[in-house]
Fold this sequence. Notes:
Blueprint: H1 2-17, E1 40-42, H2 52-56, E2 62-66, E3 72-78, H3 87-91, E4 97-99, E5 114-115, H4 117-121, H5 131-134
Antiparallel strand pairs: 1-4, 2-3, 3-5
Amino acid sequence: MIGVLKSLATTMEHALKGETFTVEYPDVPPEVSPRFRGVHKFSQERCIWCRQCENVCPNDTIQIVTNEQRQGEQYNLHVGQCVYCRLCEEVCPVDAIILTQNFEFTGDTKDDLVYNMEQLKSVPWYNELDPLEAREPDRGSWVGEGEDEVDYQ
């Protein structure tokens, strides 16, 4: 009972101050955290078809079909099944798959949420923010770069 009264007091405090927490979503796009994980973007040109993203996916969201020469024929991603753990992005050696901050996707059936290569290639950036350009790795700690060379022995 005390918890209910405390939460009611907090609600009344915010209401009396005139603070609003409502976002008028379709008219005003919400601020998205830089760490937010949204729909994947896939680059067929960068992909080397190593299938590491498919192997690391915890719930088989990614399905890749290759031919005998290990060239990719299909790359399917079930967005409705994805838990957005970002393991596929981390394991990719060539940054061929990136999680954008785009959360705007809909579908009437489960099949509408299965994206192929072409659909993943055309996923727009959210607010024109490219996550690769936003990254600033600490290049000074890489071997051979920075002021002094790093000796790992």
